[in-house]
């Protein structure tokens, strides 16, 4: 035990907290072959602890209630990054138990950013838009959930993605626009029929990004990771992977 006057032996890593719904929660699944959380942990190995706080089924109405119950105080841990990634459930169609009206969704996102717990930490915040959905694949997902009608459509998810971007802009925060990134990866261009909707043919490239039209494959998570890292490199280049010092020195420099 350290004697009086000696520095504490315990040196915690700063945290990178991923806050979101099931798409965040499932990003730690090693069976996927690639996931956001392990990829970021590898990128920040020996530098940051990447913490997965994904909650399946949650929307922003749940998020604002659970957030202060897990988010650490500055006395407990230092949060360097916080991603806020909700909307997949909020954007469920009216009548769904998961639906959150668009204006309430925007208000809830802002409440998380402006929460006293967040302000106390002053983390670098990334607001992440919901990814698009593939209505062709969602039919099986909905049937598995006992839904006789569609739970989500891509045109509505787009509105929530745009709303997330508006909140980020109003709060002067970076936005990771995954809706556009996924659509672009599938070859979609503005003015064309909306890939993922029944108005356009099923797109194999687009379908390869989803397991069920909502949740992501390894290829989908690779896009997420690339876009998150790109946002960090653009907004905080001194915090990008490979730029921060390790918490503990390499073995050749470590005290013996």
TrEMBL record:
Q: Which GO terms describe its molecular function?
A: hydrolase activity
InterPro entries recorded for this chain? Iah1-like, SGNH_hydro, SGNH_hydro_sf
- Name the source's superkingdom: Eukaryota
Alphabetized UniProt keyword annotations: Hydrolase
Gene3D superfamilies linked to this entry: SGNH hydrolase (3.40.50.1110)
In this chain the SGNH hydrolase-type esterase domain maps to 18-223
Q: Pfam families, per this entry?
A: Lipase_GDSL_2
Its name, as the record gives it, is: SGNH hydrolase-type esterase domain-containing protein
Q: Which organism is it from?
A: Aspergillus cavernicola
Q: What is the lineage of its organism?
A: Eukaryota, Fungi, Dikarya, Ascomycota, Pezizomycotina
């Amino acid at each position: 035990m350290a004697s009086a006057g000696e520095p504490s032996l315990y040196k915690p890593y700063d945290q990178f907290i991923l806050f979101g719904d099931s798409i965040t929660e499932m990003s730690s699944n090693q069976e996927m072959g690639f996931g956001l959380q392990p990829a970021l942990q590898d990128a920040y190995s020996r530098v940051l602890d990447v913490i997965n706080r994904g909650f399946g089924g949650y929307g922003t109405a749940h998020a604002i209630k659970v957030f202060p119950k897990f988010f650490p105080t500055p006395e407990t841990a230092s949060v360097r990054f916080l991603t806020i990634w909700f909307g997949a459930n909020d954007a469920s169609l009216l009548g769904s138990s998961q639906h959150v009206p668009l204006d309430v969704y925007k208000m809830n996102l802002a409440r998380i950013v402006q929460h006293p717990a967040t302000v106390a930490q002053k983390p670098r915040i990334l607001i992440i838009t919901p990814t698009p959905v593939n209505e062709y694949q969602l039919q099986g997902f909905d049937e598995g959930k006992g839904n006789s009608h569609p739970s989500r459509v891509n045109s509505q998810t787009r509105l929530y993605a745009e709303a997330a971007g508006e909140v980020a802009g109003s709060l002067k925060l970076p936005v990771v626009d995954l809706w556009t990134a996924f659509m672009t990866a599938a070859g979609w261009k503005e003015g064309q029929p909306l890939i993922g909707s029944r108005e356009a043919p099923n797109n194999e490239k687009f379908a390869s990004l989803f397991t069920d039209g909502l949740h992501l494959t390894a290829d989908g998570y690779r896009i997420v990771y690339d876009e998150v890292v790109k946002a960090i490199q653009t907004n905080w280049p001194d915090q990008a992977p490979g730029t921060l010092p390790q918490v503990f020195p390499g073995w050749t420099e470590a005290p013996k």
